[in-house]
Structure formats: C-alpha cells, structure tokens
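Practice problem: Ferredoxin
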Amino acid sequence: MSSTSAAARLHLTIDGRQIEVEAGATVAAALVLAEAGGTRLSVSGQPRAALCGMGVCQECRVTIDGRAHALACQTLCREGQIVLTHNQAIKAIKR
Ligand code: FES
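Answer key — structure tokens:
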C-alpha cells in the first residue's frame, strides 16, 4: 500500500479551453495555467489581471458559471466550472 495518494484533479473550461488543476487551486491560478492573458478590461479598454490575490483590488473579475464580476482570486476551482475572461465575454455579448 502506498503512503502517498495522487492529488485530486479538477477539470474546468477557461475561454473554451479545457484545463486540469489540483483540487484547492483558485480560478486565478487556473487563469495563469491557461495563459488566459488577463481577466477584464478597464473602463479605458486596458487589459487587467489579478494583482493582490486577496480580494481587494477587484482586478481579477471574470464570469464564472454565468455569474459576472466573480473574483477569481477568491473562488476555488470546481469540476465542470466554466470561466470567461473579457476575451470570451465580449464575444458572447456581440453574438
Ligand atoms: S487579485 Fe485582487 S481582488 Fe482578486
């Protein structure tokens, strides 16, 4: 019998891309793994990304399972989660 066990893995979709992460990872960490290239756009159209990692700056807002403005740094990944950054959210609005 092994004394170690494989860490639980979760699967989520970020901007249409399938990502696998360890259980306990935040959506902000998954965005980095997915090379999402940012979270949202500022009011002047500048790309933004997670900055503080502790729920203060609000720069990590994304759409998670249809809920807009969710803080990626304060949200744990869940199996089957669907995350949209500004790139995909803007495309969805234009459809
Ligand atoms: S990174 Fe600052 S609130 Fe999420």
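Discussion: Residues 9-94 form a domain with the Ubiquitin-like (UB roll) fold (CATH 3.10.20.740). Students who identified this feature from the tokens alone can consider the problem solved.
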